[in-house]
Amino acid sequence: MSEQTASRSVSVLGLGPMGQSMVKAFLAAGIEVTVWNRSTAKIDAMVALGAKRADTVAEALDANEVSVLSLTHYDAMYDVLGQAIDHLPGKVIANLSSDSPEKARAGAKWVRERGAEFFSGGVMSAGDNIAHPASYIFYSGPKPVFDAHAELLSPLSPQEYLGADDGLAQVFYQALLTIFHPWLLAFDQATAVIAKSGHDIAQFVPFAVRASEAFPYFMEQFSVANQNGGWADLASLRMMDAGAQHIIDASEEVGVDAGFSHLAQSYWRKAVAASETAGTPVSTYALIRGETS
């Protein structure tokens, strides 16, 4: 296989919604793609679009220098690559699966001990829409390895290389999901209150979008505060406690589950109690960091 051909071909192992999106992006960019998945139906669907079939993991690894993994978690990587350990030496594994930073570091060590290069990624996308303007991918691991294959992977999404720590992509990826998951639940609760109050969710949404435009301001302000121990003012903490109670009342009056707001309120109340005990304001950031009880 020539260097030119190798640079324009890749294997993708794992054809869930994200893996299929990756295959489509590679094919659209004119890159030759070999695919493997436990479910042959998903392989058939990608082959119909122009991908090449690998019946085994070994065939997928042998087909190209670089293999992209899109699996449920890192434990699946051991199961999948374990089927073809003898085919790993000299290969490059780009694991774009989600998991914890420590599991990514352990996975990187495991792959390298078996003779392959490794770098990790965290795909920040709008669902499985990696072509969305807001989508991008965090990468981490040895920079020379990433740089050597960055162009090949460029069709997937804009790239954000973070550093040599194999777990760093997952640190940033999971940190952003930490913000996103509560937002999903909060939006469900908010729209449930609108609907069960007898009003139109569609009428509400433009106001929610407008309010979200202030989020960058708050993130910038709180990031500065959190670099200095966190935002804490006893009167303001009590105000947040009271505000949370108003949200709980508005939700429960119409039969909406306010468990999420009860949880938020518990943090404001812990901060108030800690502040009263310490005789100085204690931030929720300090509580979450485990710096005070």
Q: What is the makeup of the main sheet?
A: 8 strands, mixed
Number of helices: 13
Helical content class: 55-70%
Radius of gyration: 23 Å
Going by helix content, strand content and strand pairing, the class is alpha/beta
Low-confidence stretches: 1-6
Tell me the number of strands: 8
CATH class of the largest domain: Alpha Beta
At the fold tier of CATH, the topology name of the largest domain is: Rossmann fold
CATH superfamily of the largest domain: NAD(P)-binding Rossmann-like Domain
Q: What's the number of structural domains?
A: 2
In N-to-C order, the SSE pattern is HEHEHEHEHEHEEHEHHHHHH
Beta-strand percentage range: 5-15%
Mean pLDDT: 94
CATH architecture of the largest domain: 3-Layer(aba) Sandwich
Instruction: Give the distance, in angstroms, between the N- and C-terminal Cα atoms.
Output: 61 Å
Verbal overview:
Pfam families: NAD_binding_2, RedAm-like_C. Belongs to the HIBADH-related family. This protein is α/β, with parallel strands linked by helices and 293 residues long. Helix 7 (143-153) links the parallel strand 7 (136-140) and strand 8 (159-163). It folds into 2 domains: 9-163, NAD(P)-binding Rossmann-like Domain (Rossmann fold), CATH 3.40.50.720; 200-289, no CATH class. It has an 8-stranded mixed beta sheet, with helices on both faces. The chain has helices spanning 3-7, 17-28, 40-48, 57-63, 74-81, 101-113, 143-153, 168-196, 201-212, 215-226, 234-253, 259-278, 284-288; strands spanning 9-13, 32-36, 52-53, 66-69, 92-95, 117-124, 136-140, 159-163.
